[in-house]
Write a structure and sequence with these properties.
Blueprint lengths: L3 E5 L5 E6 L2 E7 L7 E4 L2 E5 L5 E4 L2 E5 L5 E6 L8 E7 L5 E8 L8 E8 L2 E7 L4 E7 L6 E8 L10 H9 L24 H18 L2 E9 L5 E5 L6 E7 L5 E4 L5 E2 L14 E3 L4 E4 L2 E4 L4 E2 L24 E2 L7 E2 L1 H5 L12 H6 L3 E3 L18 E4 L6 E4 L23 H15 L9 H6 L8
Antiparallel strand pairs: 1-2, 2-3, 3-4, 4-5, 5-6, 6-7, 7-8, 8-9, 9-10, 10-11, 11-12, 12-13, 13-14, 14-15, 15-16, 16-17, 17-18, 18-19, 20-21, 21-22, 22-23, 24-25, 26-27, 27-28
Protein name: Cell wall-associated polypeptide CWBP200
Organism: Sedimentisphaera cyanobacteriorum
Length: about 450
């Protein structure tokens, strides 16, 4: 990619983007903090709730909860027109997606539904309910590690109705009811069996016959520090399926193993920048609470949390996308690597409580020390001390020895507790997400409640 230069105003809004010798100007909307009225020669519009509803030939429709329900593109050539529809469940998770393009092109239809574990998609299904892909994750919410592509023969399905299956076995052709006690007679009519025979077939043959019709192809993910997928590898001889590169704000270029550019992922990979799902039809990323536009570098909707971290309600990661991530589309956070490395700033820790007191450190009490009293019962007597700046910490056991294990150790704070918002955003939330280090044995619930009672490392 060519070098890109960005210019911003004091509202964290772009004023221009320069790529090579070409500069594109961004005009701010005077009626909205963080909104644009135009980008280059393209008009930008917003609906009554502040959602971006138009950018050039691209149009967006939202529901009363500010969720994107439809995207459509108008073009001079009808064959380039497209429409996409999106559905959500009661938890606000996107559970369906349907797209079509061209003039009456049924072959262009794409219907998908999604199954979740918490807020992570673990499976994709086609319009008939057949599984297409499954996904495996690591510890991070957007840390996808494996995509399992399910290859289904024509006509095969995972969700065959048990009612239809039973009707085929228990009813003669044309009958409207079951004959549960009828006996099976081979090659004669009526061809019926009883419930016991059906159960035997299901347990001994049906599952094996169904599974034998399917094949699975595995692809693994390589990601960078931000969690952006940079390579997809497979069991093919050269191992590499696709390569991904991004500009600072997540606009993606995809290439095959030979470096040839691709318009979209040939492998059907939906996960790209910062580990989020990319919709190739619209060029947007689905970012849970909102949709993100990498070309503009902004979210399409206002921050659901309001002005908690910025006066610009549309900015992505405070215009610092190379150092911060935002898993929920609500609040930026530092990257995992930066979080794990923070203790290099915890440069001097007094060796004893007496030395800490002499140096002006202060001892803190419950509940501010709860995360440093986990593990065996003896750890409940640990003491936590904080430096005069509020940034450095040290922890001592009941005998006054420095605690250095991965769970209870003192950690560096990018912001002191007196700066509550930033302290939570850059110190507490990353700890809850990832722990103190890769060796931290606690899980998310331990870190929220401070209740880990296992061994310390």
């Amino acid at each position: 990619m060519d070098a890109i230069e960005y210019e911003y105003n004091n509202m964290l809004m772009r004023e221009s983007v320069t790529i090579g010798a070409e500069t594109e100007a961004y005009a701010a909307d005077p009626n909205g903090m963080g909104r644009y009225s135009s980008v280059g020669s393209e008009a930008v519009e917003y609906d009554g709730n502040g959602n971006l509803s138009r950018c050039g030939d691209d149009y967006y429709i939202y529901d009363p909860q500010d969720r994107l329900r439809a995207y459509y593109r108008l073009a001079g050539d009808p064959n380039e027109a497209s429409v996409s529809l999106y559905g959500y469940d009661l938890f606000g998770r996107r559970v369906s997606r349907a797209s079509a393009s061209g003039v009456g092109d049924n072959e262009g239809e794409l219907q998908q539904s999604f199954a979740y574990s918490g807020h992570r998609v673990i499976a994709e299904y086609d319009g008939s309910g057949g599984v297409q892909k499954r996904f495996v994750y690591g510890a991070g919410i957007d840390e996808v590690v494996c995509m399992i592509d399910v290859v289904r023969p024509a006509g095969a399905g995972w969700t065959e109705s048990m009612s239809d299956l039973a009707a085929a076995w228990l009813c003669a052709e044309g009958d409207l009811c079951y004959a549960a006690n009828a006996d099976y007679v081979d090659n004669t009519e009526p061809n019926m069996i009883n419930i016991e025979d059906l159960a035997y077939y299901l347990s001994e043959y049906y599952i094996a016959e169904r599974d034998a019709a399917f094949a699975e192809e595995y692809c693994g993910y390589f990601a960078d520090e931000l969690g952006s997928v940079v390579m997809l590898y497979s069991a093919e001889p050269n191992g590499i399926a696709e390569i991904y590169s991004y500009d600072a704000y997540g606009s993606v270029e995809i290439s095959d193993p030979n470096g040839q550019p691709l318009d979209e992922s040939a492998a059907g990979n939906p996960y790209m920048f910062a580990g989020r799902r990319y919709d190739s039809e619209s060029g947007l990323y689905y970012w849970r609470a909102r949709y993100y536009n990498p070309a503009l570098g902004v979210f399409h909707s206002r921050d659901p949390l309001g002005y908690i971290d910025s006066m610009n309600l549309y900015a992505y990661c405070a215009n610092n996308p190379v150092n911060y991530v935002d898993p929920w589309g609500e609040l930026p956070s530092i990257t995992r690597t930066k979080h794990y490395r923070r203790n290099k700033y915890n440069t001097w820790q007094p060796k004893t409580p007496k030395a800490a007191e002499k140096a002006g450190w202060r001892k803190v009490s419950w509940p501010k020390d709860i995360y440093h009293k986990q593990g065996p019962k003896a750890s409940r007597r640990n003491q936590k001390w904080i430096s005069p700046s509020g940034k450095c910490e040290t922890v001592y056991d009941d005998n006054g020895n420095l605690v250095t294990d991965s769970v209870d150790q003192g950690t560096y704070n990018f912001y002191p507790a007196s700066d509550a918002i930033n302290h939570y955003k850059y110190d507490i939330e990353p700890y809850i997400l990832w722990g103190n280090s890769p060796d931290d044995p606690t899980d998310k619930y331990d870190r929220i409640l401070g209740t880990y009672k296992g061994e310390l490392q």
